[in-house]
Amino acid sequence: MTSRHQQFDLAIVGAGIVGLAHALAAIRRGLSVVVIDRDAQANGASVRNFGFVTVSGQERGQVWRRAMRSRDIWLELAAPAGIKVIQRGVVVVARRPEARSVVEAFLQTEMGEGCLLLEPDALRRDHPELAGRNFAGGLWSPHDVRVESRQAIPQLATFLAEKHGVEFRRETAVRSIEPPEIETSRGPVFADKVIVCPGDDLATLYPDRIALYGVTRCKLQMMRLADPGFRLPAAVMSDLGLARYSGYAALPEAAALRSRLEVEQRDALDNGVHLIVVQSADGTLVVGDSHHYATTPDPFASGRVDDLILEEFSAVFGGPPPPVLERWTGIYASATGQTMFADAPREGVRLVMITSGTGASTSFAIAEEVVDELFGSTTADARKIA
Fold it and tell me: Where does the FAD dependent oxidoreductase domain start and stop, copy by copy (predicted)?
């Protein structure tokens, strides 16, 4: 029966960053790939984010190493895929002495290699766009990069299709998977093996397997602000991020910072607010974000939550923020104590979910691991961009 149909080595369900990363890992091994997605273009968490490939602050150990590897792949991809790297590095402002202590402790770990402590005078001199007068210092990390996700995701898909022959079946829902046949809303697709990357869809494919990992959803709020008249060479974060990102927050020194924040910024902590500011090529700023958890989050953005984000922006940059040009919410899969999982619901099928909001930062490395496990280990030579 299958001889009359094109048969692929690998079918990938989901064309967000996780699915595209698996397609890349597969084509680097010389595999034929089809990607199936229910939408006409990427519309979920993969494009509703900062485009910030975050290395510094990721959970210590495997997650941090995956972020470093994924960062390297983004940089390898940039020129061949026409993806512009807009910013490099991150400045983490330490507004309080307790935040500086976290920075100093971070610099003593392996994650701090190549990073620098910014003294208050250096912070004021090198980053005059920041308020800076009463800051305790800051962290400079060269490891992070930023792309414009709304452009980079479709550019990556185009690169995979036009340069490497990946076939995309858009506006197509997958109903069942029984390799080598995948039943879809537009007829069968045939592939030897299948990787399912469902994003925050917890109900369509393998819901019982997903439930084993305690997956829920996280809603975030973000904004785009008008060009402030200055240019940020790097992304900017602050004390709230030091208390939230595990690579900082798990350090013993973070306990004192969190205790102070619980007194001074309780509302921000309760709403999962921390500050990331990145700048687009047109000068506008992407600012966020917040975190609210529910199986089905409501679709409404809270004005009060946006205000909390902008209050932190003003504290870091000084003065009122520029006008808000856009507001949006994003939703991603989330699981307590679980940054990702790769499940095997049946032979020849893998279910991959990133449950920590780190898709842009870790997907490429995770995809290499999953494809290697599914098809057998490979060599570094097979991982070069053609």
Answer: 9-372
